[in-house]
Design brief:
The complex is a heterodimer of chains A (114) and B (115). Chain A is an all-beta fold and 114 residues long. Chain A has no helices and 11 strands. In chain A, a hairpin with a 2-residue loop joins strand 5 and strand 6. The termini of chain B are far apart. Chain B has no helices and 11 strands. In chain B, the strands form 2 sheets. In chain B, strands 2, 4, 5, 9, 10 and 11 form a 6-stranded mixed sheet that branches. The chains are: A mainly beta (114), B mainly beta (115). Chains A and B meet through strand 4, strand 5 and strand 10 of A and strand 4, strand 5, strand 9 and strand 10 of B.
């Protein structure tokens, strides 16, 4: 059972480049989310999805796009990378969106924008 | 606005003692509160979930309390070991006008257990 798989683990981008962070889960969870984690700021919610075809914005959505075409996959797209997007990104999934089930996290993607 | 505060950025405890971490929240009326552990370079790992009608929850050496009047949760590790050294995060479900928005995390407490 792989759980939540994120790729890549590390990435360096130049300012203005675009890229997609991949996230896949094999637990048939309806709820998936993306967080960024910065020193002193904790985990901040970027976007989330309560099921295939349904996405919504979290606390810090600007500069990011998401889509959810299948239950398993929830990619995060950076449209035009900026140094302020240098961070560690975590994808998470859970059975429920109501906070009453545990969230499973991926290993993270460390992104540096130069 | 909804806010979660964890008592300190770092906590040093001697091995064998009980470590107590605090999570305070404002402008929430959570039905559930969760605690996670995060090791350097890794994603958070779920530890315990407590419901609003539960005063206390235990799992091995871990104990969580939930006081909805004080708007506070305490997380205890008894007989602490150096392997318990990690960052511990509390999390609540965030709500807005449109409904549930996902888990919001505190900034975490970095716990160091000294041998």
């Amino acid at each position: 059972n792989a759980g939540v798989t994120q790729t890549p683990k590390f990435q360096v981008l130049k300012t203005g480049q675009s890229m997609t962070l991949q996230c896949a889960q094999d637990m048939n969870h309806e709820y998936m989310s993306w967080y960024r984690q910065d020193p002193g700021m904790g985990l901040r919610l970027i976007h989330y999805s309560v099921g295939a075809g349904i996405t919504d914005q979290g606390e810090v959505p600007n500069g990011y796009n998401v889509s959810r075409s299948t239950t398993e996959d929830f990619p995060l797209r950076l449209l035009s990378a900026a140094p302020s997007q240098t961070s560690v990104y975590f994808c998470a999934s859970s059975y429920s969106s109501q906070g009453n089930t545990e969230a499973f996290f991926g290993q993270g993607t460390r992104l540096t924008v130069v | 606005s909804q806010k979660i505060e964890q008592n300190s950025e770092a906590l040093n405890i001697q091995e064998g003692k009980t470590a107590t971490l605090t999570c305070n929240y404002t402008n929430y009326s959570p039905a559930y509160l969760q605690w996670y552990r995060q090791d350097p370079g890794r994603g958070p790992v779920f530890l315990l979930l407590i419901r609003e009608n539960e005063k206390e929850k235990r799992k091995e050496r871990l104990k969580v309390t939930f006081d909805t009047t004080l708007k506070q949760s305490l997380f205890h590790i008894t007989a602490s070991q150096p392997a318990d050294s990690a960052t511990y995060l509390c999390a609540l479900l965030q709500y807005s006008g449109g409904g549930a928005d996902g888990l919001t995390f505190g900034k975490g407490t970095h716990l160091i257990i000294q041998p």
